[in-house]
Each structure stands twice: as structure tokens, then as C-alpha cells.
Amino acid sequence: MIKSENKHNSWVFLIILVLIVGLIIYYRLKMHLYLWPAYDTYDLLANAALFAGKGIGYSDLLRPPLLPFLTSIYFMFDGLSITPILVVDGFLCIFGSIGLYLFLKERFNPLISFVGSLLYITSPLILVNAAAGYNDIPSVSLGIWALYLTYLGVKRNSKFFYLAFPMAMLAFLTKYNMALLIFPMLLYIFMSWKEIKKPKTILSGMFLGALLLVPVLLFLNMKLGNPLYPFMSFFGTSGGSSASSLHFAYNPDLLYYLKRMPVYLGNTALLIVFSTLFGLLVYIYQKMDKIRLFNWKQIKKDGNKTSLIVFLAILTVLLFTFGKVHYIVSEIFLFALIYLIFKISSRLGWDCKMDLLFLSWFATFFVFHSAYVTKDHRYFIFMIAPVTYFLVRGLSFTIETLRFDFKNKNISLYAFSAFLLILMTLFTFSQFEIIEKANMGNKLFNDEVYDACNWLKKYDPNYRSKVVYADYWAMFSWHLKMDVGKMPLFRNNQRILLGAEDKNITEEDKKAYDRELNRTNPDYYFFTWGKINFTNYKPIKIFGEVTVYERIE
User: Fold this and answer.
1) For 520-539, what is the mean pLDDT?
2) Where do the domains of the chain lie?
3) At a CB cut-off of 8 Å and minimum separation 6, what does 242 contact?
4) What tens digit of pLDDT does each residue of 24-62 get?
5) What's the CA gap between 307 and 303, in Å, rounded?
């Protein structure tokens, strides 16, 4: 009877989850259409147009192809617009929240899993970037399913591996850093090797995943002449050491994400952390006489002592080499550390494989993004799902520790859950207002770009036969539906393509712009930093920060 009731509740909570997340996505989509998407989305839109056979003359095939490919399906049947990529992003976000709910439900009851899924979807970074046309959340959504299917391949049926590895490949083709998923996937497989009934299905799943990559490599080889070129920047660097220090996201601080984690998680998550600490204090007080932190006799037996020594040695090496060696080396050390934790814990009779799966998931992406000197708030999105698991773990522990039953019902469970749901609802609505206000500058700039492009179309109806350059070329390319030349940025005698943190332009920088214009010799140039004087170019129209320059004949 209880099992049947839980199954019924599972479906009810899943339906409610989809409705709530769908509503959130709807509001975010409307807001993004009003505020305009950010720069990266225009690159992906250009690629989608190319895949649909409606190329605008510009594309950036260094970007991962899956999100543009899914968007291109719509473009094949209708005209080019911004909306489809936002919708695809939104649907994949819903898909990911469903996967996380089902994954959490493997350990927790339906209500706790429901709360956990909403905790993920209402975290600040997810709310800001949901349905934005970026590839971060879609790749994480597919990654959630890849790890969930890996878990099912171990616990339920080995045939799930046929889906797990292709899903991981789809995540990789959505965002290249998702290649790191192979670490937590393989770690869980190694830890659970004795439970896998048909290990051959793992190789079959890998083969199916590799098949998905074949058409992508053939396409890239045809377009770029080197099928591996888009992947080289990800696999070939030890941490983005070549990034310019003038870039807005340049930050070599290895603890950057750790320091900002409270802000990224939000008030609801922090409340859970503090309540878990309180629950832990209560538990320690209640079990004071029975708690034994370590069973030293058991640790000294069965090779645990040796494993512990090796663990400490590898941990020391990892800490001293972190950020100084190629990140793959650090990932391998991390893999070994977590596997040793599994070996020690299993000898002590502790079953913590699921905990270690989520720990490896978090740590793998934390190590990579911490070592990489280009840091952006969005990159923490890849760590939110595993952090959510541990928050839910703490919440479940607190509820059981402070359990209060009435008529065979866990009142603590319902009270905590109701309070958190109310808090998340209030937080979400307040965030919507904050997000809109914070992005009004982006809307203003996009409006200026749009107006400037429309003005040029009327000023020179033959503009497509001319050479046009711009600072943020992808945006101008999309609105003009043509290939716009890439004008680099010049700051403090340095040349970078995009993302300068310093908006101040020195006299030397102005001269550098002038030299670049005289070298490339475009007919029109869109300058997005106000107005300056050029030798052979005159300003013919100004839209706020966007100035349209024409070459003097």
C-alpha cells in the first residue's frame, strides 16, 4: 500500500514540477525576448541558420553544434528569428529538471526530490540563464541524464548504458567541457563493477556514443579542413594561460568559485546549510555516548592503512600541483582520490557510492573551471546539480534528526518542505524583477545595434555588396544577414577580440583602431564605444554608444 502510494505521489510531484518549471521558463523566455539575448546566442543563431541551409554569410563553427542543430530544425520550416533557440534552451532546461528529480528519487522520497529539483531550478544562476539561448544549461541537462542513465545501467539494467554514453556525447556536443563527464561516469562504473550484469554493454554504449560524433567530424572536416580544430583549444591548454589579462573574465584565483559559492547558491540553499549544521549538532548531542568517529582497528586491517597513506600522498601532490600542471593531470589525481575513498569506505561497511558519484561530478568540474584562468559566473552552472544533491542530503538528514510524527505522518517533512517552497517562490519572483533591472543596459545596447543596422539598410540598399566591420560582429551579422568583419579591441597597447574589461580608450588605442581600419579598409564600420576620430572615416550616424562610420572616398 505504501509503495503504491509513493508511486502515485511520484507522478503527482513530477507533473507539478513540470508545470512550475514550465511557468518559470515561459517568464524567462518572454523576458529574454524583451531584453534581447547576450552576445554568444548570436553566434549560435548564425550556426543554426547555416545548418538549415539559410546561412547569413557568417558563422562560428568553433562553437558546439547541438543547440544550433536543434534550432535549425525550426529554421528549415520557417524564417530566421531569435525565439526558437530560446525555446529549445527552455525545453532542455525542463528536461534536465525532470532528470534530476528522477535521479534524486533513487535515494530520497518524492517530496524531498521535488523540493530538491525546485532548489536547482530556482538557484540564482539557473534563473538568470534559463531560456537565454546559451548552451550551458542545455549541456548540464543532458549531462544529468547521462549520469542518471549510468546509475540505472548499474542498478537496474545494463541496457541503459546504450543510452548513457550517447547522452554524454550529446552533452559534449552541446558544450565541449562536458567531455569531463567521463570521469564521474567511469568512476561509478569501476566502483560498481561487481553489480554490472553485462559489462559488454558498456563498450557497446561507448560505440553508439562515438557514432554520434562521426557526422560532426565529417562536417567539420568539410568546412574547416581539420575535424579536430574546434576541440583543440579545450584539450590543448592547461588552463587558459593564453587568455589576456584585459579580458573581463580573466581571473587566476584558484578559489574564485569557492569564495562565491554562497552567492551562487542563494538564500534558500544557505538556509538548508545552516539547518543541516543545527541538525548535526542535535544528532551529536543525542548520540554522544555512541558516536565513534573512526574505527581504528578496522582501518589498520585489510589494507586500509596502506590505502589511507596512498590517499594522503596523492592528496598532497594534488594540492601542491593544482593550477600548476595540465588540468587533466589534476583530474586523474582526483579520480584516484575518490576511488581510494570508496575502497576504504567499502571495507568499513559504508555504502556511499552514490555520494561519491555526486562528489566526483562536482569536483571534476570544480577542478577544471578553477584551474582555467577565464572565469565567468555562468561556469558554476556545471556544479549546481551535484551541489543540490548534497543540499538535499543535508535537508533529509535534518528532517530525520528533528523528526516529529503525528498520526503516522512525518510533520517535520511537510513543515520543512512547505517553508522552503514558499521561500523559493518569493525568491524567484523577486529575482525576476532584479534580473530585468540588471539587464536594461544590455537591452539598450541591443536596441542601438538593431536600430543602427536598420538605418544602414535604408541608407545603402546595396550594403551587402560592401565590406562592413564591427566590434561585436556576430550581433551585426545577425541583424544585417551578412558576414561582418571582426574588428578587434585595443586596450593598453594590447589587442583582444572580445570582452575587454576596461572601457577607457587611450590615445594609443585610438591610433591602433585607426591603423586597423586603414589596413582592412571596410566601407562601413560600427564602433560601439561612443565616438572617436579616424583618419579616413567619418561618422554618419550615432545611436547611443553605436557610431556608424563610412570610409571617405
Assistant:
1) 93
2) 243-402, 441-551
3) none
4) 999 999 999 999 988 899 999 999 999 999 999 999 999
5) 6
